[in-house]
Specification:
heterodimer; A: 515 residues; alpha+beta; 9-stranded antiparallel beta sheet; 58% helix; globular; B: 247 residues; alpha/beta; 7-stranded mixed beta sheet; 43% helix
Chain lengths: 515, 247
């Protein structure tokens, strides 16, 4: 690969024609084609392609329309296919390199258009003495974004590309550029790449008063709720609702776990609203999960029964559609809008000079230490009490405590050394996931039983019920495996290294000294 | 990766134009295609406007000191690359002879490219020599253009006999008529009798045509400067027939 820059920007005043006339004084070239085209960039809402250093673009002209995946760093084309329209999901593409690549990156997320960029495109061949093309130049003249040049090296002519690059930079004084036209287009829209992530990244000043810091946290969560609302209502993909619910759950956990920073009546009023939100979004999410798991369900069956499970998919799909449309109308209802606005308003209001309680007047670092330490101790106590014979409920309760601890640690992570808190969150996540699996398999087992009763009314073939029975058996096996795994995962979590880390990071000084 | 050698013991029968034009058609339909110009005259390199020169010449090439991939040049056409000739290829026989298992050499050199190309066309020099044997060992298909003359019948028979004696079971020989002149009664007669005797000869004949001859002036494959003519159509049907024959 050449070390010379391959991308250039034309100065604002320089039109394509002027550039070509300047170029013609320096080198021999031929314009292979000139046409009007539209470039549309695509990515998932959470920038999965961009995060993997990939750009997805659809290029449409009168004569051709193709979609391509481009390496964001070196411009290399990773996959290209003729395509008129871009399907929403990777599984709707035809088999091939493009699909394989998209499948692994996007998973269940939809491909959404980011911007449409009309432009005039010139394909220019740089020729040598034998009139052989040694470098291809693509000149794209955009309406509001200026013009861009990219050099396309040809195999065996690497030196020529270096010469042309040098000529553009030194003789024609063009500015090399690294960033894609996408970045300029986003800037024009007032956006920037990677402007959404489902991960929490709240920066807190450790000295900030607790109630003020809490508002910073809730404000961030409210932003996530609002940004995922439209996609949830439109059912663009399952992850809008997922992220929406996570933000709601985090807000609820905050209201119950960052205790006493707001007056009780305020907390009671809004906590009720968020509990309601959790409740009205639950059914749709559960059905989304069954549909996402469907492939796994199917492959868990013996081959002879795999086709018989199809009516379950149709049933789930129909049920999801109903639940989703009910949910959408709830999220458009005046009562929802009014309560969300009230919460937003409360977060905007200035706080009294003195906090409403002693907790509210602590610095956020002090409060975070207290809360995390307390919940951590509770978690250990609950976990220690679990034996082989404990009922499922104790594991469910433990899972809830785990979640509370995890949310607290995530809210406050900016107050602690990055590597240490990240390592502890990771350890907790591992432990939490075995508890999660245990509960999920149980819930799925029970739901399947309930669905089969409802499906009885639909005149479904007996083999479908047979397949569902096998599935329940499979889920039961998986649930037992998760139950069995509990001891091992808990041992991993409570290992000495983690214990010490929790203590050092969160325990009051007196307790640390004592040990 | 399928390796197709355009070969005939005789010279001037249309080997190069066959390799260049069929490779062009393969590339146009999306196959990743390479032409390897093995003829020291460098005619196919000339048609693609690429200098007939490779670093290190035939010695280093056959010794495997340079990977073929580093010597390949992109042509002006999508999906179509060229491995250029070099004047030192006139000594390829001697260089091969100095190696152990000389007839296996080309196969070994081409092996690393097997994931990069769907079709490789070997544009071979005339003659029957150690190089030809190496080509036979490497190729999947021996595509042999024949001018409809009695002498050509003899060379085709010689070739088939040689291949049979060399026990090259996996090599598929596909002959077809090239430079056929419809105005010559002799051509017509010979084509009719030949086809009866050799049913493996393809149906399509490439005509003797001035637009094919113009390749030397235009310095590109026929399809690069002619949209539709009797010759372009002939190459297209020939390519289709070959694709069907090798399936």
């Amino acid at each position: 690969m050449t070390a010379h820059p391959l991308y250039f920007e034309l100065p604002e005043h320089m039109a394509a024609g002027k550039f070509l006339s300047k170029l013609s004084k320096k080198i021999d070239f031929q314009i292979a084609s000139e046409q009007y085209a539209i470039k549309t960039f695509y990515d998932s809402f959470d920038w999965r392609l961009y995060n993997a250093d990939i750009l997805c673009e659809l290029n449409q002209s009168k004569t051709a329309s193709h979609i391509s995946l481009i390496d964001r760093n070196n411009g290399e084309c990773l996959a290209l296919e003729n395509q008129q329209d871009v399907p929403s999901f990777s599984n709707q593409f035809q088999e091939g390199r493009l699909k394989t690549k998209l499948d692994s990156l996007l998973e269940m997320r939809a491909l959404l258009p980011l911007c449409h960029l009309p432009h005039q495109i010139y394909q220019i061949n740089v020729l040598n003495k034998d009139k052989k093309t040694t470098v291809r130049i693509k000149l794209e003249e955009y309406e509001d974004l200026g013009s861009r040049i990219s050099l396309q090296p040809l195999k065996g002519y690497e030196k020529a590309v270096g010469r042309v690059s040098l000529l553009l930079e030194k003789s024609l004084e063009l500015a090399p550029t690294q960033s894609s036209i996408l970045n300029s287009a986003l800037k024009l829209q007032g956006r920037k790449a990677k402007d959404y992530s489902s991960k929490l990244a709240i920066k807190l000043d450790p000295e900030l008063r607790s109630d003020k810091a809490s508002k910073v946290i809730y404000h961030d969560l409210l932003k996530a709720i609002k940004i995922n609302e439209a996609g949830t209502i439109a059912d663009t993909d399952t992850e809008f609702l997922h992220d929406y619910r996570v933000a709601v759950r985090r807000t609820r956990a905050g209201l119950s776990q960052i205790k006493n920073v707001f007056p009780d009546p305020v907390v009671a009023k809004h906590a009720g609203f968020f509990a309601w939100l959790g409740q009205i979004t639950g059914a749709t999410r559960d059905l989304d999960v069954y549909l996402l798991n469907y492939k796994q369900y199917k492959s868990a069956l013996p081959e002879s029964l795999q086709d018989d499970i199809a009516p379950l998919y149709a049933f789930l799909k129909e049920k999801q559609k109903q639940a989703q449309s009910e949910l959408a109308s709830q999220l458009k209802s005046p009562i929802y809008i009014k309560q969300l606005l009230a919460w937003e308003q409360y977060l905007k209001e200035p706080l009294p000079k003195k906090g409403c309680s002693s907790a509210a007047n602590l610095t956020i670092k002090e409060l975070a230490d207290q809360r995390i330490w307390k919940v951590y101790k509770r978690l250990i106590k609950e976990a220690e009490e679990i034996t082989e014979y404990s009922p499922a409920e104790s594991l469910h309760d433990l899972r809830k405590t785990c979640k509370k601890l995890r949310y607290l640690m995530e809210f406050f992570q900016s107050l602690y050394p990055v590597d240490e808190i990240k390592a502890l969150i990771k350890a907790l996540k591992g432990f939490q996931s075995v508890l999660g699996d245990f509960q999920d398999y149980e819930v799925q087992e029970n739901s399947l039983k309930k669905f089969s009763e409802e499906m009885m009314a639909n005149k479904v073939e007996s083999n479908t019920f047979l397949a569902m029975g096998v599935l329940v058996q499979y889920l039961d096996t998986m649930r037992n495996a998760a139950r069995h795994d509990f001891t091992k995962q808990y041992a991993l979590f409570k290992q000495e290294q983690n214990k010490i880390a929790f203590k050092t990071l969160f325990a009051p000084q007196a307790e640390v000294k004592k040990s | 990766m399928k390796i197709i050698a355009t070969y005939n013991i005789k010279g001037g029968v249309g080997k190069t134009s066959t390799a260049v034009n069929l490779a062009y058609l393969a590339a146009q339909s999306g196959y990743r295609t390479l032409v390897w110009d093995l003829d020291p005259q460098g005619a196919s390199s000339y048609y693609f406007r690429v200098k007939p020169k490779i670093k290190g010449g035939s010695k280093e090439l056959i010794a495997g000191e340079r990977e073929l991939d580093g010597l390949i040049k992109a042509t002006d056409f999508e999906n179509l690359d060229l491995l250029p000739a070099d004047f030192s290829f006139r000594n390829l026989d001697l260089v091969l002879d100095a190696r152990k298992k000389p007839t296996q050499r080309l196969k070994k050199l081409l092996h690393p490219l097997s994931d990069s190309y769907d079709f490789v066309f070997l544009d071979c020099p005339p003659n029957i020599s150690l190089l030809s044997e190496a080509i036979f060992e490497t190729s999947n298909i021996l595509l042999s253009p024949i001018i409809p003359t009695t002498l050509s019948l003899r060379t085709l028979e010689q070739l088939k006999k040689f291949i049979k004696e060399s026990k090259l079971k996996d090599l598929q020989v596909i002959p077809f008529f090239s430079m056929a002149d419809r105005r010559k009664n002799m051509h017509k007669e010979i084509m009719a009798t030949f086809s009866e005797k050799h049913p493996d000869i393809l149906q399509t004949a490439i005509p003797y045509a001035s637009d094919i001859e113009r390749m030397g002036l235009e310095r590109m494959p026929l399809g690069g400067y002619t949209n539709k003519s009797r010759s372009t159509e002939a190459y297209q049907t020939l390519w289709q027939e070959i694709l069907d024959a090798i399936k």
